[in-house]
Amino acid sequence: MPAAQLFLEGHPLVPAFNFGCLRFEGADRLELEDGFWSIEDAEASLRLSASYPPDSPWRGNALVVFYLYRFPKGEAEYRETVGRFRENEKAKVRVPGVGAFADDVLQPFDLPDGWAHDRFARSGRDLFHLYESSELGLMIRWSYQGGDASDHPLLRGVEPTVSLIPNQWATDPPPQRSDPFAAAEDEDDDGAEDDDFVPAIDLRAEAEAFRAFLKKRLAEFDPQNNYGPGGEGPITLTTVGADTGQGGWIAVVFDTRPGAEPDGEYTLFLDEGTMLYRPHWTDCCDHLFEQEEAGVEDGGIAVTELDGTITTQTEIDALGEQIGRVLAIVVAEERKTLPAGVPNDDKTWSVEDFDGGWAYFGPYGDTL
Asked: Which of 13, 27, 101, 230 keeps 20 to 30 A from 329, CA to CA?
């Protein structure tokens, strides 16, 4: 199946184009970050995405996805896709800034004769419209994490640009417009480490930096406006996620879903407000990797333990495990004096490695 990622920052879509059974007009005005397209004889999809910073009214990620199918060849896949999304359908939802989810909410088409329309929602921020004729099936997903649907720049931007062309099946990729003023990416240097890099980590300093961040996150939780899995309501799971080797960060995300368990949903809510960045972790992991590639046996990272003992670490995974245990120790200490409304038992906390290398507490983690 022809398919490709769309990198749209600095290279917007052209003003008008056809894709599958859709026509886009004014697409160059959409403020998009990326997307994805795929198309073949009977199936096609197009995703348009954007994200918004913590100080934005629409904080978080948003996307509009078009799923297109030609009947009869693509009908079975259409039914399967719709059924999969409808498994978590809710009977009644309220759309922030709009009210009850009705037929005309984010419904861009004047349907031709012979077409049927249906809709469903998995939450007030995850909405679906279905369109079907004897020859075509189309599902549109409107999904966003923050703000109101009434004035959301991506959702309300896409809605007036798209129309349905019943007898069309355009197979060209969504064309992009080159931007001569787009900044070119800086080329990497020769790979040498920063002159200021010191191959050392003091776990005492890491513990205190994380402790201060955890206290800040706990103090700012708002059950009426939580940026995390679930809607309004009390905390059911607090996830502390960390990535040592790739990104160098710690995240604290509050889950309000009833009966929430660790399932990776917290990773959809990573931004400046939920993350504490630790880029020197990645520098240390890169240093260990380079030493391994060069066959150096007597190097490593000097690690200052919580009791002041200094050891040498030469394994990337083991370094991540050392850091993870320190995070778990801090969580165990801070759980003794949690703010009101934050549950304290092991099942309602998860301290976990982004790559799945280690985990503490929760139903799947180790205990200290």
From this structure: 230
110: number of Cβ within 10 Å: 8
Contact present, 17 and 163 (Cβ < 8 Å): no
pLDDT tens for each residue of 210-231: 999 999 999 999 998 899 998 7
239 burial via Cβ count (<10 Å: 0-12, 13-18, 19+) = buried
Residues 6 or more apart from 185 whose CB is under 8 A from it?
none
**Tokens (6 digits) for 144:** 């966003």
Is-contact 128 85, C-beta < 8 A?
Answer: yes
| CA end-to-end span of the chain | 49
Neighbours of 335 (CB within 10 A): 18
Element (H, E) at 109: none
Q: 301-305: list long-range contacts, CB under 8 Å, 24+ apart.
A: 301/199, 301/200, 301/201, 302/199, 302/200, 302/201, 303/200, 303/201, 303/203, 304/200, 304/201, 304/202, 304/203, 304/204, 305/203
Hey, what are 232's tokens?
């309004």
Distance CA(128)–CA(103), nearest Å, equals 10
pLDDT band at 15 (very low <50, low <70, confident <90, very high): very high
Q: Determine the 3-state secondary structure of 235 from DSSP.
A: coil
Alpha-carbon distance values, 33 to 24, 29, 331, 334 (Å): 17, 12, 35, 38
CA proximity to 211, closest of 310, 93, 328:
328
Select from 237, 214, 200 the least CA-distant residue to 327: 214
Residue 131 in 3-state DSSP? strand
CB within 8 A of 323, min separation 6: which ones? 201, 203, 206, 242, 244, 281
The total number of residues shown for the chain amounts to 368
Question: In sequence order, what are the beta bridge partners of 62?
Answer: 50, 144
